[in-house]
Design goal:
Length: 257
């Protein structure tokens, strides 16, 4: 089917994801997990690649901490949003924006990075396994990869709770599930992705589930206080099983050994 780009739908995607409580939960938990797993972020200036970083939510935040960030993405519309966000935050000089896919950037990059981020990208790619190899090529020896991807277990659970039992069973027995935002993302199996990482010499050090409960109780969120409460709950359980394996996204922190 080919890789998915958000040109033509960038505004709709940004509004639906980051203009909603789901985006609030995702960013809050992911930011906490990232800082816990990469403690150097707080006290060392790092060279960081945000691979498929879209509209720059994480890149701008990291640049604001004093890090030097390269942001690459295939969507011109998303990168335009990232440039505006960087300008508004006053960090334009700390972010280099490249209109390239992960694969293309890996082929031309003349450096490796202390930290590579790849958040909610693999599920939009035609060959996510190959992309893991490209990401590994961009990590310094001893450097880290922060990888977040759409979780197959969560997709099955959501379909079952919606009452679509027959489809859920077929999905479980039949392999990859195309669902997610706009029905365009392919949910990935956690252990399969871990195997891909290990084949590239990446050692998985920590796992977390991102947005475990939110999607199942979104109609019960009544305001900022309730949102803050569910974010604290999500943070509290995100590393504990079975919850970590049921997040809408799985986050893995890896080190190149």
């Amino acid at each position: 089917m080919g890789d998915v780009t958000f040109d033509g739908i960038a505004a709709e995607f940004e509004s639906d994801i980051y203009g909603s409580t789901k985006g609030g939960v995702r960013l809050a938990v992911l930011w906490t997990v990232l800082n816990e797993d990469v403690p150097r972020l707080a006290d060392q200036s790092m060279r960081i690649l945000d691979a498929g970083g879209g509209s720059g939510h994480m890149a701008v935040r990291l640049a604001g901490m004093g890090h030097s960030v390269v942001l690459c993405d295939v969507s011109e519309e998303m990168l335009a949003k990232a440039a505006r966000r960087a300008a508004e935050a006053g960090v334009t000089d700390s972010i280099e924006i490249r209109h390239l896919s992960i694969q293309a950037y890996a082929n031309i990059a003349d450096e490796k990075f202390d930290l590579v981020l790849c958040h909610a990208v693999l599920e939009w790619l035609d060959d996510p396994k190959s992309a893991v190899g490209d990401l590994a090529r961009l990590v310094k020896r001893g450097g880290q990869l922060s990888l977040m991807f759409y979780n197959r277990f969560a997709s099955l659970l959501k379909r079952t709770l919606a009452g679509d039992f027959e489809a859920a069973l077929k999905d479980y027995q039949g392999g990859p599930i195309r669902r997610g935002w706009g029905e365009g993302a392919t949910a990935l199996d956690n252990e399969m992705v871990v195997l891909w990482l290990e084949e590239q010499g990446l050692e998985v050090g920590a796992r977390a589930g991102i947005r475990i409960f939110h999607d199942h109780v979104v109609d019960k969120l009544g305001g900022p206080q309730r949102l803050a409460q569910i974010i604290e709950l999500e943070k509290a359980v995100c590393r504990s099983e079975p919850f970590a394996s049921l997040g809408q996204h799985t986050h893995l922190t890896c080190r190149l050994v």
